[in-house]
Amino acid sequence: MSTAAIEVKNLWKKFRIYYDRALTLKERLLFWGRQRYEDFWALKNINLTVPHGVTVGLVGRNGSGKSTLLKIISRILYPTKGEVRVNGRMSTLLELGAGFHPDFTGRENIFLNASILGLTRREIKERLDEIIAFAELGDFIDNPVRNYSSGMYMRLGFAVAVHVDPDILLIDEVLAVGDLAFQEKCLRRIRELQQRGKTIVLVTHAPKQVEDLCDMAVWLDKGEIRMQGEAREVARAYADWLAAQPS
Amino acid sequence: MKELYLYREMLRNLVAKELRARYKGSVLGFFWTFLNPLLMLVVYSLVFSFVMRAQMQNYAMFLFVGLLPWNYLANSLIQGTASLVHNASLVKKIYFPREVLPLSVVLANLVNYLLSLLILIPALLIFKVHLTAALAAFPLVLLVQTLLVIPLTLLVSVATVYFRDLEHIMGILTMAWFFLTPVIYPSEIIPPELKPLFNLNPAAPIIEAYQAVFFYGRWPDWASLGWLALGGSFFLVLGFRLFDRFQRRVAEEI
Ligand SMILES: Nc1ncnc2c1ncn2[C@@H]1O[C@H](COP(=O)(O)OP(=O)(O)OP(=O)(O)O)[C@@H](O)[C@H]1O
Ligand SMILES: [Mg+2]
């Protein structure tokens, strides 16, 4: 394919930071024209092209705009200016198990959650066994998820999300969940997806993970791209800069 | 629209969840879907045949025929206000066409209404209301009503994100609308000079059409249904457009 998997052009994102949020009709009418909020630019002029089959690491300090960028690419948020183009089926892992219904069993939640991620009934049925096997929940799969531990909850969430079989996978700091064995398994799954030519964008705080997993990296700082390029270079520069910060 | 089709399984699951969750934990469970209209029927027929002695013949049936589709409309609106704000965690974390949430509310209430017909029809027979071929117009009346319910529910759901108290006001608004609509009274009692004003209410001709079809055994007023269908189609397109425009900032405002 000649077109890129993800193309971000001159992207800006503005949030309103409310001091004192007027949410009710009465307040809105009373404070008409003097809504107390301040504009905050969370992303400033972001340009980014991700070719097909490439894994990109996104690094930066807390609040630098990584999650915001991921949410705009995945269409959860809408850009203030600029444009984003995505070619291919996309799946986002922002928070595992969002959309689970506590009273439903693990199995029922697989159907619910996978359908929220856009799978049809047939696709879900085809993948059901694989998802259950991946989650390794044993007999708990037929228990209501409100009885799950938080680790089990996330296992199930991860299992569903990676079996959507997207062309493009956006991952926000969810690789750090579960016990060590499960983390290993998640990483193996990511490598397997890479080998099958999937495009991956990965938010992480660990420069080491960028070096190990990614081809390219982007370093965000206060909503701007500070550096982008080959993964190892960016990861090292970022690690050096981090080490030099007074903490 | 094409995207909505891709998410049909989500819509189906949410409707099932809605129908199941409503009575979850109650002893009788899903049977409440039938028991609710049945109890309503019993109470109304007792009150109006023994306590209030309505002037109208078979008043309880008249009321029942109009009240069930009214509930479809009113419950869609009331639950619609909560459909986005109460699913904030979903809206903020996962991409899906947000129309799915209010639409699932409409569909669940539509299914509930259709199920309540299983009580209505036998009740009409028992109370010796004459059922005629006019029943054939029922699907059309339901379609026209749905053309209005969908965009209204879409709009209240997204408006509630920006004006939270809509969720609490909606109950009162629908109650006011209820009294302006000929559900508990026949439209004949409206003074003729007020009739044009009264006809501005799109719910009036719809409820009257239900009463014609089920209660009076007459064909509905085709002219007003036709106009409503036309207006409803425009409103439907407009509703989806406006929803799309206003849902853009939903994930950050919610
Ligand atoms: N809905 C919102 N309304 C207002 N401001 C927001 C909103 N979402 C994010 N922000 C602000 O935008 C900035 C970037 O947030 P973002 O979540 O993208 O950071 P991040 O790089 O993911 O940080 P972290 O490493 O902590 O996850 C932050 O300053 C945050 O306060
Ligand atoms: Mg983040």
UniProtKB/TrEMBL annotation, chain A:
Residues 6-247 form the ABC transporter domain. One of its GO terms (cellular component) is membrane. It comes from the Bacteria. CDD domains: ABC_KpsT_Wzt. Pfam families: ABC_tran. InterPro entries: AAA+_ATPase, ABC_transporter-like_ATP-bd, ABC_transpr_TagH-like, Bact_Polysacc_Export_ATP-bd, P-loop_NTPase. The keyword ATP-binding applies. Keywords: ATP-binding, Nucleotide-binding, Transport. GO terms for molecular function: ABC-type transporter activity; ATP binding; ATP hydrolysis activity. Belongs to the ABC transporter superfamily. This is ABC transporter ATP-binding protein. It comes from Ammonifex thiophilus.
